[in-house]
Amino acid sequence: MVKLEEVSLDHVEEEEYTDTDSSSVYSSDDDEDDVDNIESILDRVWALQDVIPAKTRKSIADKCSTVYGWGKTSANFLGNSAWVLTTSALLLVLPLMIELEHEQGLIEYEKMQQQSTQMLSQPAGQQKKQASGIVPPGF
Question: Which Gene Ontology cellular component terms are annotated (predicted)?
């Protein structure tokens, strides 16, 4: 159990701060004090088990465990779903896209073949007019 002690104001006022050397503020003792402060904070957190009843602590622990379990299950499900979707896309959509690109290339090749056939089948005079575009007068 915690024991409380009352401190009078007269006792606090009598003590004066006598350390005037600022270099002693940054000594190695401060590092040890920081470790002691960390330990005291951990001790205080650990001491909370005396404040919170055992039934409440068990209820909180069970709820945290349940939330952790649901979170872990959800993360596993999302990861597996992402894996299935990406592998399915690679196996099904990628070959389709490659085939569509190949077909588009064949269509362009056929158009070029038709254009070359049309150019070869036209008379020589018409080819010059089409090839030269606008001809200035007198030529």
Answer: mitochondrial outer membrane
